[in-house]
Amino acid sequence: MPQNTFPAIHGHRGCRGLRPENTLPAFRHALALGVDVLELDVVISADRQVVVSHEPWFSAAICRTPDGLPISLETGLQHNLYALPYATIRQYDCGLTRHKSFPEQQTEPAYKPLLREVFEEVEHYVAMHTRAPVGYSIEIKSSPAGAGIFHPLPAEFFELVYAEIVAAGVGERTTLLCFDKRILQVAKMQAPGLPLCLLVEDDRPVEEHLQELGFLPAVYGMHHPLLTTGLADFLREQGVAIVPWTVNNPEDIVRVLAFEPAGITTDYPDRLLALRH
After folding, report:
1. Residue ranges of the GP-PDE domain (predicted)?
2. Which member of 92, 93, 205, 224 has the lowest number of beta carbons within 10 Å of its beta carbon?
3. Structural domain of 70
């Protein structure tokens, strides 16, 4: 594949295969490697701060309590970020415990940062190094079942996240991602110029998903095994970019590259960067 057609490389949760996910060390390392886009997830704290985290609770797989103790699977949901002020959230460690699925991951002390802190860190890094500005793919972790328990209702959730994007001045480089179509519908009304990505992980027809959404998103982000020639052709005809996730294995990378997607989301951006170079 020619250099000028190589898809944008999206570092999943920074670079989860190499550093603790969704932490400043992961984002810094992804930038040093040379990713084009940082993919990250956001939740809301009890004091309405936008926190970078995949789950709206502290995962037993990677996090420890402020006392340094492991979190059991049985008690994980009790460490609900939506019920904790950010000052408390910051006391947990989510970098010293290596995720068992990622043996190459280098551990180090790390906390769940605020979204604004990530913006500040990344923009400062770009300004201090000779590299192009980075894009942001921000997934809002919302679900109908979680409203009022693990996160706010869609309108408030979007407003809190969008306010941080606007304050950081990165709207032109940000795409908002979500499985929850209600979030994207609110975003379409409140910020019509913001690129939106519908995330999909089931094998229902694409036409059904788009009909439920009610508009064509800028990006369709499918779980990579769902990517077929028919799906890719249909979306291109509609003018919708494709960014499959999470593509890690060499054989999957080769298969997905053949579809010439707009971007590829991966836990191992170093593997894609090696092919691009």
Report:
1. 7-276
2. 205
3. 3-276
* The token pair that represents 273 in the structure block: 């960067």
Q: Which two tokens stand for residue 211?
A: 């009909």
Q: Does the structure show a pLDDT above 50 at 2?
A: no
pLDDT value of position 4: 56
Helices (H), 139-249: 154-168, 181-190, 206-213, 229-237
What total number of domains does the chain contain?
1
Interior angle at CA 166, CA 44 and CA 242, nearest 5: 80
Distance separating alpha carbons of residues 217 and 69, to the nearest angstrom = 43
The pLDDT tens digits for 49-108 are 999 999 999 999 999 999 999 999 888 899 999 999 999 999 999 999 999 999 999 999
Alpha helices of 63-205 — where are they, by DSSP H?
86-89, 115-128, 154-168, 181-190
Question: Residue 97: left (phi > 0), alpha (psi -120 to 50), or beta?
Answer: beta
**Residue that is written with structure tokens 């959404």 in the block:** 213
